Structures
1.
Amino acid sequence: MNASIEQIKKVIEQDRQALLTHPLYKKVERLDQLQLFTEQHVYAVFDFMSLLKTLQQLLTCVQVPWVPVGTPNTRYLINEIVLGEESDVDEHGVRMSHFEMYVKAMQQLGASTSGIHAFLEDLQKGIAIHDVIKKQVAHPKVQAFLEFTFEVVATQKAHVVASVFTFGREDLIPEMFMNLVKELSTSHPEKINPFKYYLERHIEVDGDHHSHLAIEMVSALCGDDVHKWEEAAEYAKRSIQHRYQLWDAILELI
């Protein structure tokens, strides 16, 4: 593997291990606690899709008239990831994005989706994202998590966005959490199974194939530029630290 990618992994390893062993995972034991978890974690799924679409804007042409943008290889990498994330299939074979799949799973769980729906409705009205975050998101650490994402978006630096997308992404799901979901699914199968499917599908698609594509994308975007690699490592580290704070917020609420 690229030596610079290995260096990023070395820079983030301590924070990554702290995230994987966060005390939150041992506190989610009941259905009502899992419901509360999803009501806050859904913002991380929204955040993930926002980073993804930023990369598509930066690396491909999304305007008319069309002109070629970037390199064919990076266009291919991001378009393949977008295809899988924005139009995957649920457990019944119905096409939907991973975000829509998550919200559907929340509804099946009995979790409240009023917060995320109000958040999206304000965005659809054209209200600025920073104002929507302040208005609709109550916990300051969840606010900070989202503010960081849109700080990353505002850089308009493809290598920075790609690094946060790649190294601060949703494949950071420890086995203990998956085991908890499996246990709950035996007692509440009709409520838990859609969420269990989402997690398994996300790990299958994002934790394997998409993660390799994303790493290849970071390598292509940073190239031989030492400064870009340093920025990529810095933002990757910060993204994991903000994810840890998101977990802190959910733990406080539980």
Note: The beta strands are 88-89, 95-96.
2.
Amino acid sequence: MSGFLIYDAKVAVLVVVFYMFYRLLLSKETFHRVNRVVLLLTAVASFVLPLCVITIHKTVMLETVPMVSVGDFQMEVAPVERPSVWQAVLPTLYIIGVLAMVGHTLLSVSKVMLLIRRSERYPQADGTTLCVVKEDVTPFSFWSYIVMNRSDYEEHDAAILAHERGHIRQHHSCDVLLVDLLTALQWFNSTLSRD
């Protein structure tokens, strides 16, 4: 497990570096598709790059291992390494954090699905479904559903519908779930976000 924690620390460093470059170079740009692609690719690259191994050959002198002799029998004596408390605590804390984040995501998705299930649904010609809810919610989309409150629905605001349909066409729900999964694996690193 300590190998995985080292890998995860490398991922955390790459996430911070990529995000820093994004904030400096692209965050003010209005090319939303480019920003989306850059953010998704750098998030995935942060998890892939630490798996790449670069081998450099170097001659190393090995120390001799002490030998113990008993009569005609010889055996090597290797130092005994005792696991530290942190080798047990850190993996446990990490797993608890991942499970908490995944649980939070599952809870959020189930709340959205419950909201959609309780809504008045109006199928649209483009394959989307307009869901009108009693709750005061900001309009959002989830898969092929556009969720809005009654007052937004009665205003027939074409800009809101066009905006949410754009999210559906670009499969924004997949992006959100991917980022939520990556965030769960990097829960201790708060810079991984859904810009």
Note: The two ends are 31 Å apart (CA to CA).
